[in-house]
Automatic annotation (TrEMBL):
Residues 68-227 form the CP-type G domain. Keywords: GTP-binding, Nucleotide-binding. This is Ribosome small subunit-dependent GTPase A. One of its GO terms (molecular function) is GTP binding. SUPFAM superfamilies: P-loop containing nucleoside triphosphate hydrolases (SSF52540). Residues 288-310 are annotated as: Disordered. Residues 77-225 form the EngC GTPase domain. InterPro entries: G_CP_dom (IPR030378), P-loop_NTPase (IPR027417), Ribosome_biogen_GTPase_RsgA (IPR004881), RsgA_GTPase_dom (IPR010914).
Length: 310
C-alpha cells in the first residue's frame, strides 16, 4: 500500500470483510475508513482497492507439484518500471533470466531497466552487446559509484527490483534507502520451494537535498527468484523479443516459431543478421519451458553458453 501523502505517517490497516476474496498486494492504492492517524495502536480498514494501472504477474512454475504453486499470482500492482538487477560477475550475468524478466515487463506494460552491478569486477560490453537491437536502458553500479543516474530514473515512479540471489540487490537497496536495513550476503529465510505470498515490500526513496518532486518508490522482491510465464500467451511472449517481431511477418499463419517448424521465418531473419541468434535460441527456450517440454531452469542444460540460463 502506498499512502497518498508523500510524507504521511504509516497507517496500519486490515482488509475489510466487504472486499471478499480480493487480495491486496504491494502497490495497491486503497480507500481506508477508521483511524488513519497513524498513532500507536490505531487501526484502519481497507474498504476498496482502486483499479490497477498495471499488474506484474508470475506463474509459480517452479513449484509444479502443488496446486498453490501453479497459481498465477499478482506480484505488484501499479508499478511503472521493472529494474532487472544483474551482476556483471560473481555471479555471471544470465541473459536467459533477463529475457524472462523482459517478457514479464512487456506483458505487464511496465518499462524495463537493466541495472548492472559489480561493474568493478567486469565490463558490460558482452551483456549490452546482446541487447543492442532493443535499446534497453541500463545503468552501471560499482561500490564507489554515485547513484545519481539510477536515482534520476527512479524519481517519480514505482520501480520493482528483481534479481538472482548474490547480485547485490540488498546492497543496492540499502544504498538507495539507508533506513531499509536489508540483510546483505544472507539468503533469506524464505527458502527454496516454500510458498510465500508476501514476498514484496515497498520502500519510499528518501528525498535528496537538490531533488525536487517525488523521489519515487522501490519494491524489493526477496522471495521472487524468477518469473514463471505459463500465463503469458506465445504471442505475448514474442513481445519480450521486439528484435524478433518483424522477422515473423513472413511466417506461415499460426506459426509456432519452434525449431522444428521448417517454414518459420525467424531462422532466415537471424541468418540475415537482423537479430542475434542467441536471442532466437532464448525465445525458443522460453517457448519450450512454457509448453512444459523443458525445465525452466536452463542453466544446467546449456553449459556451452555461459550467458544463457534463467
Ligand atoms: N565487488 C562488488 N561486490 C558487491 C557489489 N555489490 C554487492 N557486492 C557483494 O556481493 C555480495 C552479495 O550482495 P547482496 O547485496 O547480499 O546480494 P543479494 O543476494 O542480491 O541481495 C555481498 O558480499 C556484497 O558485498 C559491487 O558492486 N561490487
Ligand atoms: Mg538480498
Amino acid at each position: 500500500m502506498l499512502p497518498d501523502a508523500p510524507d504521511g505517517a504509516a497507517v496500519t490497516a486490515m482488509r475489510a470483510r466487504e472486499l471478499g476474496r480480493k487480495s491486496v498486494v504491494v502497490g495497491d492504492r486503497v480507500s481506508l475508513v477508521g483511524d488513519v492517524s497513524g498513532a500507536d495502536g490505531a487501526l484502519a480498514r481497507i474498504v476498496r482497492i482502486a483499479e490497477r494501472r498495471s499488474v506484474l504477474r508470475r506463474t509459480a512454475d517452479d513449484d509444479e507439484n502443488t496446486a498453490e504453486g501453479r497459481l498465477e499470482r499478482v506480484v505488484v500492482a501499479n508499478a511503472d518500471q521493472l529494474v532487472i538487477v544483474s551482476a556483471l560477475a560473481d555471479p555471471p550475468p544470465r541473459t536467459g533470466f533477463i529475457d524472462r524478466c523482459l517478457v514479464a515487463a512487456y506483458d505487464a506494460d511496465i518499462e524495463p531497466l537493466l541495472c548492472l552491478t559489480k561493474a568493478d569486477l567486469a565490463g558490460p560490453a558482452q551483456v549490452v552487446g546482446y541487447y543492442t537491437e532493443l535499446e534497453l536502458p541500463y545503468v552501471l553500479v560499482r561500490p564507489d559509484s554515485d547513484l545519481d543516474a539510477l536515482r534520476a530514473l527512479l524519481a517519480g515512479r514505482v520501480s520493482v527490483l528483481v534479481g538472482h540471489s548474490g547480485v547485490g540487490k540488498s546492497t543496492l537497496v540499502n544504498r538507495l534507502v539507508p533506513d531499509a536495513l536489508r540483510a546483505v550476503g544472507v539468503v533469506s529465510a524464505i527458502g527454496r520451494g516454500r510458498h510465500t505470498s508476501t514476498s514484496a515490500v515497498a520502500l519510499r526513496l528518501p528525498r535528496t537535498p537538490d531533488g525536487d518532486g517525488d523521489p519515487g518508490w522501490i519494491v524489493d522482491t526477496p522471495g521472487i527468484r524468477s518469473f514463471g510465464l505459463a500465463h503469458v500467451s506465445a504471442e505475448s511472449l514474442l513481445h519480450g523479443f521486439p528484435d524478433l517481431v518483424e522477422g515473423t511477418v513472413d511466417c506461415p499463419p499460426n506459426c509456432p516459431h519452434t525449431p522444428d517448424e521448417a517454414d518459420c521465418a525467424l531462422d532466415a531473419w537471424v541468418a540475415a543478421g537482423k537479430a542475434d541468434p542467441r536471442r532466437l535460441a532464448s525465445y525458443r527456450r522460453l517457448l519450450a519451458s512454457r509448453a512444459g517440454e523443458g525445465d525452466p531452469r536452463e542453466a544446467e542444460r546449456n553449459p556451452g553458453d555461459p550467458l544463457a540460463g534463467s
